[in-house]
Design brief:
This protein is an alpha+beta fold. It has one domain: Nuclear Transport Factor 2, Chain: A (Roll). The protein contains four helices and six strands. Strand 1 and strand 2 form a beta hairpin. It is globular.
């Protein structure tokens, strides 16, 4: 019986070398990506969102529409019952001032859940609106938060009442 020998041609050796190098490079990219993703912590982010909501409630109770609007991104949209979406921080500041001047004295926000990525977070929550100590409305909201300059800003703010329409 004849013994066969296997020889690798230079072309095959080159292809194997290229394959092994690109495999290592792909593996390195995966590790790097995983390392970058691991720096994002949803629990920490939720705490930041809850803190931003506390600032929102404080500014609202103080009738400080300018500081309140500063919590929104420049390209934000504010979407409430019965009106078209209000776009932009300046217009949102104006509508918030109108809401405050309508007699609503404070708002209570309760974060139910958050999920998302290091640049965009979705928050689900419940709200109560007050005139003095009296609850005049309860509802729910969804906010998309966008990270800008290391700070979470409201990017899309939509809410509605739990009360039946009149």
């Amino acid at each position: 019986m004849k013994k066969s020998t296997f020889y690798l041609t230079p072309a095959v050796m080159l292809l194997l070398f290229i394959f092994s190098v690109t495999s290592c490079e792909t593996q390195t990219k995966k590790v790097t990506k995983t390392s970058a993703e691991s720096t994002f912590n949803l629990t920490t982010t939720k705490a930041e969102i809850v803190a931003a909501n506390k600032a929102f409630m404080t500014f609202f109770a103080a009738h400080d529409s300018v500081s309140l609007a500063s919590l929104y991104s420049q390209d934000a949209k504010f979407m409430m019952n019965g009106t078209p979406a209000i776009s932009g921080r300046k217009n949102i500041q104006s509508i918030l001032s109108g809401i405050m001047n309508s007699g609503i004295s404070s708002v209570d926000l309760i974060t139910i859940d958050v999920w998302g990525t290091e640049n965009l977070i979705t928050e689900e929550g419940e709200l109560s609106l007050f005139v003095g100590d009296t609850v005049v409305d309860k509802g729910k909201y969804i906010v998309l938060w966008k990270k800008e300059d290391g700070k979470w800003n409201l990017f899309r703010d939509i809410f509605n009442s739990n009360l039946a329409p009149k």
